[in-house]
Amino acid sequence: MITWHVVAVATLVEGTRLRCPSCGTRLVYEAESDALPRWRVEQNDKPSALTDPIMNVDTLSGRDLDAMVAQRVFGLQVEERTNTRTGEKDFLYTVRPGHWVRVPFYTASMAASITVEAEMRKRGWKRIVLATVQRNAPNDAPVVLVHDDGRKVWAAGLLNEALCRAALKAMTP
Questions:
Q1: Which CATH number fits domain 57-171: 3.40.50.720, 3.40.30.10, 3.30.43.10, 3.30.2120.10?
Q2: Residue 106: closest CA among 49, 64, 153, 57
Q3: Residue 12: is its pLDDT beyond 80?
Q4: I want to staple 144 with a disulfide (CB 3.0 to 4.6 A). Which of 70, 85, 128, 129 is the partner?
């Protein structure tokens, strides 16, 4: 099956890497053959929260967001793996050498997201409940975190995801 990726490049130099804006696939320019540019898909072509330093926190969701929270908020050693049962990517963290456990579902479980809020409280961040939360559905609200020193971060979306995004923003220097 052929997949078309539309990219705009001013100059082509062998080894140029770029990402398809529509699907996120990483491409590497190799050389021209028959006056046509030749690209190959880079190994591990799907962007991952753990391997992509330019990923925007506000666009993260699902297991990618869970992995980032585990890594940056809780300081866990996280590794991306393929679930052998489903074939989908998943994330594990090490509890001790040689023993791996699935990263908690911070974005899907209220119990797991409460641990994120508790960890942020330990670090001096408090969640502020805005008046708009009471009028809107409780699952779709902005989350504002305020630090003891006055710094503020916020994120919007579903409550669990917004809390995780705000926590990541708070942990970014």
A1: 3.30.2120.10
A2: 64
A3: no
A4: 128
Listed in order, the ranges of the chain carrying CATH 3.30.2120.10 are 57-171
Summarised one tens digit per residue, pLDDT across range 108-134 is 999 999 999 999 999 999 998 776 655
CB 143 within 8 A of CB 160: no
Judged against a pLDDT cut of 50, whether residue 26 lies above it is answered with: yes
- Pair 59, 157: CB distance under 8 Å: no
- Other CB atoms within a 10 A radius of the CB of residue 28 amount to 16
- Does residue 168 carry a pLDDT above 60? yes
Which pLDDT belongs to residue 81? 87
